[in-house]
Specification:
This protein is flat. The termini are far apart. The chain is α+β, with helices and mostly antiparallel strands. The longest helix has 23 residues. The protein has a seven-stranded mixed β-sheet with strand order 5-15-10-6-9-8-7. Strands 1, 4, 11, 12, 13 and 14 form a six-stranded mixed β-sheet that branches. A two-stranded antiparallel ribbon has the order 2-3. The chain has a domain of about 110 residues: hypothetical protein PF0899 fold (2-Layer Sandwich), CATH 3.30.2320.
Length: about 325
């Protein structure tokens, strides 16, 4: 250091002092983490042997019942017939292998545990994939489980209050929630503003949600958006789901199998696989899950909803 500077300096330099200080560090932030509301709101039903069977009554089977009769008239005889080959939902799986060098966990484990942080972030990624599969999987995803009669089209493009009312006529028995892409919720909000009927809000899980007819509209960015925006107008479309929830209500349920070996959360396991010749430790992370729609009237969709339709308002 220059002698003139040393002569003029009256206290320790800030940069030099920092060498003696302990920097406060955050945990690793991952921007792709979302609230995953549907995973929190969906009722999770435990299964055994990795399979859930949905037993239903036979379509068209008539149950004979008599009412308003008097005297000793013969009563009808009846029985309930079941579907002979009910649908079964096997557990789906999401897996990955975490690799961590033993030198890292030996030397660089304070103040943040390296292995715990690797597991935490990987579990977040697995949960994001789980939500995507619940919506989009061709085997059990909700978008593909909607019955043909429960698939509706918007009246003229963007989602309007009339469209959501029409969805409610299909899932009218204890509807639990709408599930929509954030852009679809914004498009619906614009249509409500246009009509002067701003939707009410409700607090769930510590966050505000828009509602329609008292049913919360839950955002989910895993609902796909199709098409491309262009200068001549909108070609972006998506779907909005409405569902009833719960096994007792014959609605939509999530499926998992708690109690698996090396479980760190229900139906989620972490197994140490060993250390290879390069001193790298491997850990197998596994999540088992699925979903089931118990009756066809538990789930409806509004398809081909336009997202980029805007209104012009007069200037005063």
């Amino acid at each position: 250091m220059d002698n003139d500077l040393l002569d003029s300096q009256c206290s320790v330099a800030t940069q030099a002092a920092r060498n003696l200080a302990t920097t406060t560090k955050s945990l690793v932030m991952m921007g792709k983490i979302t609230p995953r509301w549907i995973l929190q709101l969906l009722p999770w039903v435990p299964v055994t042997a990795g399979t859930y069977r949905v037993n239903r009554t036979k379509a068209g089977h008539k149950i004979s019942i008599q009412a308003g009769h008097q005297g000793e008239c013969p009563l009808p005889e009846t029985f309930i017939d079941y579907v002979e080959h009910p649908r079964e939902y096997p557990m789906s799986v999401v897996q990955t292998i975490i690799k961590v060098h033993t030198r890292v966990t030996d030397l660089y484990n304070d103040p943040i545990n390296q292995m715990e942080e690797q597991v935490r972030l990987t579990v977040e990624a697995i949960k994001e994939k789980q939500e995507w599969e619940l919506i989009n999987s061709r085997e059990f995803g909700l978008l593909h489980e909607v019955a043909p009669a429960m698939r509706l089209q918007p009246r003229y493009g963007p989602p309007t209050p009339d469209d959501l009312d029409e969805l409610l006529t299909g899932v009218w028995k204890k509807p639990a929630l709408f599930l929509a892409h954030p852009k679809a919720i914004a498009a619906f909000g614009r249509e409500c503003t246009r009509r002067g009927v701003p939707p009410a809000t409700v607090n769930l899980l510590g966050s505000p949600f828009l509602t329609w007819r008292g049913v919360p509209i839950v955002p989910c960015n895993k609902l796909p958006v199709s098409g491309n925006a262009n200068c001549n107008g909108s070609s972006l479309t998506t779907s909005i789901l409405l569902m009833r929830l719960g096994e007792k209500e014959q609605g939509v349920i999530g499926l998992h199998q708690p109690g698996i070996p090396d479980e760190i959360a229900p139906s989620l396991s972490l197994r140490r696989m060993g250390i290879d010749c390069r001193a790298i430790a491997s850990y197998l992370l596994t999540l088992y899950f699925s979903a089931a729609v118990l009756t066809t009237d538990a789930l409806a969709s509004l398809e081909n909803v336009e997202l980029d339709y805007y209104h012009d308002y007069p200037e005063y």
